[in-house]
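[Meeting: bench + compute handoff]

Bench side (C.D.) handed over the final construct sequence. Compute side (W.E.) agreed to return the predicted structure before the next meeting so the bench team could plan truncations. Sequence as handed over:
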Amino acid sequence: MPEKLFKVNSEEYILPGNRACQGCGLSLAYRYVLKALRENTILTLPASCLTVLHGLYPITSVGIPCLNCTFASTAASASGLVAGLAAMNRSDITVVAIAGDGGTYDIGIQALSGAAERGTDFIYVCYDNEGYMNTGTQRSSATPMGALTTTTPVLTKRQHKKDMMKIMEGHDIPYLATCSPAFPVDLYDKFVRAKRIKGTRYLQIATPCPPGWIFPPRDTVKIGRLAVESGIVILYEIKNGKFRLTGRSKTIAEKGTRIPVIQYVERQGRFKKMSTEQLDQFQWRVDDKWNECLRRAEA
């Protein structure tokens, strides 16, 4: 039998049947996250879509220990787990905090920033579906300009998305990375690397959401790919300050095949009221960020 091109852990840690939405990008990403993390991992997560996927006590669809915490305290909860394991002299267990963009960009940023400043030894994962999806698609600071949410019911969001990766890079932590479930091998490899590093590690997963973004559930991977191919989502990692493009983004940079953002925007109902001016601003911001990443990759 020929050797496999990609060696991904064959174990499954998400059990058959869960309460996630049809076509959920998070469930696809989470499957590969857990495959990379494997056993000897403890998870902590706040109220979120991921809580729904895990299920209600005492029944769960996930085969790895998990601690539920309050919305604002994901990183604080992880810090407590790290301290407890240290007191028990258990250095063999990886602590992983996972929250959505609302629980990271907004409500949870204080505890996360404090933990990162201290260099607390855990992996923090933000699955970014660009809104408070578990409670009905409210606007977050990760929601892009021009998108409709239930808290922008007449006019679309006027502000650009917060650059959380820059904020976390400013903490001088040893490892940061962006990922997409549409490119699972790139995602898997980054989590394997993150588990081997000590200190605070931050990974951000761009997570398409069919009901929140208003597209057919069958198009989740397609939407995820368009986000990367247009440069809206750039796949990269920063290890000890060294920036590197990865996966599909590296290929696009080498071949110059990036597509216009309109090909991504036009497939989602949340952008149906986006103005021409907003689209132009969106494209300009994507171009600016892409060019910045190209310069960093060539440095």
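W.E. noted at the follow-up: The longest strand covers residues 94-100. C.D. will use this when planning the next construct.
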